Amino acid sequence: MLEFILPALIAGIGIAALAGPLGSFIVWRKMAYFGDTLSHASLLGIALGFLFNINLNLALIICCLSIAVILVSLQKQKYIATDTLLGILSHSALSLGMVAVSFLDNVRIDLMAYLFGDLLAVTTQDIMWIYGGGFIVLALLVALWRPLLSMTINEELAQVEGVNVEFMRLILMLMVGLVIAVAMKFVGALIITSLLIIPAATARRFSQSPEFMAGLASVIGAIAVMLGLAMSWHYDTPAGPSVVVSAAAIFMLSQLKRAES
């Protein structure tokens, strides 16, 4: 059992550690729809990876980062509302990915595994991708925490203080894209954003500082991973959705506890 669960546990905790601080920024900046757009577009990366016969992790990273850059670029124009633009890109990229997959007659693809994740199928190479990408994201967060936080609180004031808001916005989107890319295969394209949002939303109610919220969100995410894997092992439920259900249960319990107090 330990040999079977341990790789999934290591990968899940690594994803949770990244999801905590980035999910906090998504909650603070109300960027949930941005995350959904990137996660839906990640299926296109899977199709391109099979089409050009390249590493799927690399294909996912290239696709998610490219979509992140496109999103930030198109957001600058004012002809289409941001939510409309995100809706167009999100569903178009997801549909394009599924159509592209249907043309790969010589490749057998389990779409359910990519849509809802397969955390128990993680390999050593996958763990290396998660922790390699995680190291880059955490290093950027440590280096840019203050300007990112300043931009989140008040963009106009951050500009007055000398923060390059456009660049910080791009960096934040690229980090979200990178985390979604390395986590998508294990949590799933349709539910990866929930693992970013739910622990952060849970931690927000118990936090007195942004740093504490980011750290607590990672801890809550790690607990949800352990509970989800335990549920998957004992009740033969899909691992990715089980992790999200566990995170949602923790969130509901936190709301009840706060309501009582």
Automatic annotation (TrEMBL):
Keywords: Cell inner membrane, Cell membrane, Ion transport, Membrane, Transmembrane, Transmembrane helix, Transport, Zinc, Zinc transport. The keyword Transmembrane helix applies. The chain crosses the membrane at residues 6-28, 40-73, 85-107, 128-147, 167-200, 212-233. PANTHER family: ABC-TRANSPORTER METAL-BINDING PROTEIN, HIGH-AFFINITY ZINC UPTAKE SYSTEM MEMBRANE PROTEIN ZNUB. InterPro entries: ABC_BtuC-like, ABC_TroCD. It is a multi-pass membrane protein. GO terms for biological process: response to zinc ion; transmembrane transport; zinc ion transport. It holds the Pfam family ABC-3. One of its GO terms (cellular component) is ATP-binding cassette (ABC) transporter complex. CDD domains: TM_ABC_iron-siderophores_like (cd06550). Involved in the high-affinity zinc uptake transport system. It comes from Photobacterium marinum. Belongs to the ABC-3 integral membrane protein family. This is High-affinity zinc uptake system membrane protein ZnuB. It is found in: Cell inner membrane; Cell membrane.
